[in-house]
Amino acid sequence: xxxxxxxxxxxxxxxxxxxxxxxxxxxxxxxxxxxxxRQAPGKQRELVADITSSHTTTYADSVKGRFTISRxxxxxxxxxxxxxxxxxxxxxxxxxxxxxxxxxxxxxxxxTVSS
Length: 115
Prior knowledge:
The structure is a single chain. The strands form two sheets. Strands 2, 4, 5, 6, 9, 10 and 11 form a seven-stranded mixed beta sheet that branches. The radius of gyration is 13 Å and the shape is globular. It has 115 residues and is mainly beta. The protein has strands spanning 2-7, 10-13, 18-26, 33-39, 46-52, 57-59, 67-72, 77-82, 91-99, 102-105, 109-114.
């Protein structure tokens, strides 16, 4: 079994920064994609950013230039540095780990950006 443990969520003022972390443990295939999704009330879950084991990244247009995703393969940990936060970034953020048809999710962490 695979477990994803998230940390770093919280309340921040608009324009501020947060750094999310997600550490995966268990039987993890070497070549995987880790990422962050978010879901705001009344909205669909959307991809924020993801990163492959070879460090290829993908970002949602809404966060490009503000968020940076990174990973430490030795620790099976993914990070999301969120700068210049906006109230529209408020959501539950979910860590994701996947390869092929295998997909795992973290428990979600609340990020609230006050105006």
